[in-house]
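Here's what a typical entry looks like (Polysaccharide deacetylase family sporulation protein PdaB):
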Amino acid sequence: MFHVVHAKSLKAITFIAILAFFCAWFLMTQYSSTAALFASTDQVDAAIYHGPSDKNRVALTFNITWGDERAKPIVDFLKKEGITATFFMTGEWAEKHPDLVSEMVKDGHDIGSLGYMYKSYVDMKPGEMRSDLQRADGVFAKLNVEDVHFFRPPNGHLSKEMLDTIQDTGYQTIHWSLNSQDWKNPGEASILAELEETSNGDILLLHASDSAQQTLDVMPDILDMLEKKELVPVTLSALLDDMTLDTKEVH
């Protein structure tokens, strides 16, 4: 049996095939460009979202952008438990809370930068990014906070241009592997459920701003969960101690 394909049908089939090819190509390039923005510890020109998986360590990281009430109790709790973590903060917040920042440093916590103002770097030009980082650096310098070489992009927004600019300033961009969603105040059980898959090398995102009203209450359960998994919470510096970071001044 022979099938006859008319010219119009052939053109339609050809058009559909070409369209399908370009759609597949577009999706593949979009996926590749997005995936290239993330890396584990073996690639320093991308955002690190995970530490080494061969050691039973994880990093507790807290973002702070505003408020006076929630951060101090979390710092006190960690001190009581003998736990060190990493606090990412805006220069604007640090400027208003110098004593608490000094206490964090004294207790052995890492300090990371969210820039001076909590504004998406994806919407900025490279010069604006450098200016915002430099302003935050000035605050940390006045507070005698040394070795601030971790940067976390506000809202977690990433772009290739942003990553290149941040690397040029000497910072290492840090993302996360598990997001507790604690800022939504969904309930302690929900926060804990978001972290139940925690394993070696994970970077956990939590918040210490006043909007995160349930974080402190769930911290004992988080530590119990980590203990049952035989995971040790450490600072980012300790988690990534096998990674070489070349630091430069922001110009």
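Confidence is low (pLDDT under 50) at residues 1-8, 21-38, 40-44, 244-251.

More examples are in the samples folder.
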